[in-house]
Amino acid sequence: MWTTIRLFFRLVIWKNFKGVFLFFIILFAMITTMKTYGGWINQRHFKKFNESNIRGTLSYVRGSGTGTGIDIGYVYKYVFLPDAHLWFERTAEIGDSVIKPAFSDTLILKKGNKIYPFTFRKYPNDK
């Protein structure tokens, strides 16, 4: 087994060291760019969400690793990252009401007779 590993290292890794090294440099640059650009996009979306006075009925709820997106009346689209990320997505449904005053740290989800307050993450530059 060790002979196979040494042979693999000699034939593939060592002879193609420049190619492997270049691959990892390009991979590192791509990941760094995506994280930086993605953070900038998310911060821009959060700024719109934070400054908005939201009051309306959900027409769409979607979630991803970068945040939760909600549409209010098919017109206003917001992206934010609730602290209870998955719980918000599982609780909120189309037709539920949401309320969030501008610059508030809490979004209120009204589901029938129940009220669910959700806090969300803020970016370091925002107050």
TrEMBL record:
Alphabetical keyword list: Membrane, Transmembrane, Transmembrane helix
Lineage: superkingdom: Bacteria
Transmembrane in keyword set: yes
TM spans (from-to): 20-38
Name used for this protein in its record: Uncharacterized protein
Organism annotation: Chitinophaga sancti
